[in-house]
Every structure is written in structure tokens, then in C-alpha cells.
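TEACHING EXERCISE
Course module: macromolecular assemblies
Task: Read the component lines below, then compare them to the predicted structure of the full complex.
Student: A.B.
Group: 4
Components provided:
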Amino acid sequence: MKILVLNSGSSSIKFQFIDTDEQKAVAKGLAERIGIKGSKIKYQRPQEPEVHFEGDILDHQMAIEYILGILKSDKYGVVKDLSEINAVGHRVVHGGEKFKESALITDEVIKEIEETSDLAPLHNPANLKGIYAIKALLPDVPQVAVFDTAFHQTMPEHAYMYALPYSLYELYKIRRYGFHGTSHRYVSLKAAEFLGLEYAKQKIITCHLGNGASVAAIKNGNSIDTSMGLTPVEGLIMGTRTGDLDVGAFIHILEKEKISPQIGRVLINKHSGVLGISGISSDMREIEEAAGKGNHRAQLALDMYAYRVKKYIGAYTAAMNGLDILVFTGGIGENSDVMRKMICSELEYLGIEIDDSKNNGLRGKAQVISTDDSSVKVVVMPTNEELMIALDTEYIINK
Ligand code: AMP
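Instructor-supplied answer key:
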């Protein structure tokens, strides 16, 4: 099948046109600054240079109209006619408790995604704009929503509830949902396949370490816990997010600084994490470089980052009563041998032993990096959320 995968943000749309038989993108790109001065579309076919198209893009529908135009253009196109697009798969951030797997988009599903927007006010409305645009432009093409939260819907109640008055759950559905589900599912499946092991019988911890970061505990193919919660702030230290934080400390800061919850939200989402600790950057490459030159706060950011991941690995090994496979993915997990080594050091008692000759210098490639004797297999597995969305879209349509 030929599937257009869309990841619609508030002012951008990432897209890939994927051939699921080949499991490859035949074209990909990004429309950015939608509705803002200086809009453009970046576009690329494999093994060809990236091309840029500039011009006003007023809204998401206009952006998608341009994208479709490029996909069927004589010069850069990959289809002769838009009827070659078999389906469109959308990344949708929040599926609430309603969506436990991907869903064929109907009017009812759209209504349910709209209702869930309350839980993800920055993301779901943007994702919906892509869905409305395709409905208008390609009314006969089936659309599928693939949710970031769906994979974690198998979490047991004792893992997803917060110790707040129960009425808050009943009133507002305040609970832990988790995110990055498409990535955790993809890399855990791929890692088991890569090792030749039966997925449904493994205890797997996946560390998605990118600008946003989360860990998941996957037992017998089901996510039983994950580090992000109601929002993507909980859990690991991230580029600019705090991760786990004493809520008492947060309220104390609001009172001391006399700032509103809205500004507090910006503080914990945009000014904290690796950036906040180091004062240098949210980018792990720059932090590693500065730490290498002896910058104390950059080194502290690395130490705190690795320590937080290590604690989650310990916790999730306990939650699953053991561990078979540890997976690293995301920009940092795939590329930073330094961070992988820091996280895995002194975890020998759990059966985790890294082979430096396999880990050092490994970037962006699927590979086992544990020693032959390590009882836990440690694997680097590049994530591919777009491919997972395309495969899920195909699966739902064929169902
Ligand atoms: P992502 O959000 O998955 O694209 O990941 C972005 C993060 O990956 C940024 O913090 C980058 O600095 C980090 N990253 C990418 N390449 C490397 C590398 N070679 N070494 C360390 N961090 C890297």
C-alpha cells in the first residue's frame, strides 16, 4: 500500500509518503511556518537533494494542497495521480481512555478526538486540522488515527492512577497516560525480531531518549508502565522539561516568584531539564562537548540525566520481576555512546554488561551492544514512528 503519513503540529506538518510493501519512504518533507510570514515546504526523495518551496501558506488545508501538488508534480512527484494514495495515517497525540489502538477515522472518531483535546490542548487540535484537511481534499481516501497514548492503555490501574482524591479521576480523567507509544511499540517489536526472540514472551525496557524522553516497561508484549504521565512532563529529565519533580517544590516556586500556573507551565516545559541545569543548551551534543571541556554544570546535567534513566531501569526491572532486553532509541539513545555507557554502568547486578567495542562510535544503526555473557541483551534500535503509523494504517484498513 502507498500511505501518506501526516504529523500535524500547530504551525507545521511533517509528512512521509510510505510504500508499506517496501517498508520505505518514497518521499518526505516538512511544511513549516503555516499561517506565519516566511512559510515554506522542504521536500526530499531518497538519494536526492532536498528542495525548498517558498510562498504564503495560510492554513493546514493549503499546506496539504501544496504537498499533494508536489507529490504528483512532473518534476518532483512520486505518483501520477492522487488516486494512488491508498490511505492517510495521522499521528494523534492523545487518545485518552477511549482509544486502545489505532482507529479508522469516522465522524464519530473525530468527535471523540475533539473531546479528548481537553487533555492535550496544544496537540490534538493541531492533529485534527490535518484530518479535516484530508477530509476536504481527498474525501474518498480512508484515514486512520494512530495515537501516542494507545500502546500504554494496557497499564494496570495501580500503575496509571495518581494518589489524588479519586473524584479527580472521575471528574476530569486525571491519570497517567504515557506518550511515545508508537515508538516504544516499534522499537520493542523490532528489537525482539532482531534478536530472533518471541516478542510475547519478553520483558523489555525501551528508553526513548530524544528531545522528549520516556521509558516503558513492556511485559509479554504489553506496556505495563511508562515514565510520562497525564502530560509529557513526568519522568525522565528532557531537553527542556523537568521530568519528575516534587509538586510541593513547584507550588513553592509559584508562591516565591509570584507567577501564575500558566507561566509555571512554561517554566517546567521550556526552561528546565538539560537546558535549565546546564544553562548552555538543550542539545545533548553541546552538553557532551561542554562537559568534555570541564564545564561543571554540563557534567551535572549528564550525571543527572543518566541517573534518572538508571533509576527507571531499576524500577521497571522490579515491576516486571526481571529483564530480558534493554533498548535504546531516539536521537540520544541511537547516537550517544557516552550516555548509553553512563546509564548502563554499574547495572551489572541486573545482568546488564556493555561491550565497549560494540558501543563506542555506534550511531543510528541497529546493533546489540551488550557482551556475549550479558544476561540482558542491550540493543540500539533506530525508531521509525512514521513507518509504524503507515503499517498500522494498512492493518486497520485491511481489518
Ligand atoms: P530527537 O528528538 O529524537 O531528534 O533527539 C534529539 C536529541 O538527540 C538532541 O539532544 C541531540 O543533541 C541528540 N543527539 C543527536 N545526535 C547525537 C550525538 N551524536 N551525540 C549525542 N546526542 C545526539
